[in-house]
Design a protein that fits this description.
The protein is 18% helix and 28% strand. By secondary structure, it is α+β, with helices and mostly antiparallel strands.
Length: 197
């Protein structure tokens, strides 16, 4: 008695050595295996892929701890209320130190006339790229209000800083945030390093 032609299909194909399968079942087994691999290979986790227009995110200093955001406008309008407090702030990077990246100014928006606040970095431990202007910044740090000496105002202005109102002697009262950590988001990648130097 002759064995049926497709009798081998009754057994799991994976348990049979390829050499024992009848030649007629090889195309079917190949088709089944190919279909299985295709189905498994096409399972793409789309949530792990960034959007095509995603901004480049750069982190400097300590990781942000997730403090509730304080509006920059509130800090600038009532600096005495926030003096000495640790805050989380978001803003548009209006300017950055053109020599080292050892400070930046953040504003509520990209307008040149938008009120801004200078941000320095705790213990001079990190810098931001000199080409940071135009980026969006999220940061955490301590608010301080201080009188900046005329010579330091002049120095900062030589690096690109702007002071809205200077005193007659050339000094300025400044609201500043001393940041422990900064996240920058921008459309272009940076080749600058966040290390001092």
């Amino acid at each position: 008695m002759q064995r049926p032609r497709f009798a081998a299909l009754a057994l799991p194909i994976a348990t049979l050595p390829v050499a024992t399968l009848p030649l007629a079942t090889l195309p079917l087994a190949t088709l089944l295996l190919g279909t299985l691999l295709l189905l498994l290979g096409c399972q793409v986790d789309r949530s792990a892929q960034p959007p095509a227009q995603a901004a480049a995110r750069e982190v400097f200093g300590k990781p942000l701890s997730g403090l509730t955001k304080t509006p920059l406008a509130a800090i600038l309008q009532r600096p005495a209320e926030f003096d000495g407090r640790t805050v989380a702030v978001e803003g548009h990077v209006a300017r950055a130190c053109s020599r080292k990246g050892c400070w930046m100014e953040i504003a509520d928006g990209p307008s040149e006339s938008a009120p801004s606040c200078r941000v320095t970095f705790e213990n001079y431990a990190f810098f931001v790229p000199k080409d940071a202007p135009g980026a969006q910044a999220r940061l955490e740090g301590t608010v301080t209000t201080s009188r900046i000496k005329p010579s330091h105002v002049e120095h900062l202005e030589s690096e690109g800083a702007r002071f809205g109102a200077k005193n007659p002697d050339g000094s300025a009262i400044e609201v500043q945030i001393v940041a422990t950590g900064v996240e920058l988001e921008r459309a272009r990648a940076s080749s600058s390093s966040g290390n001092p130097g």
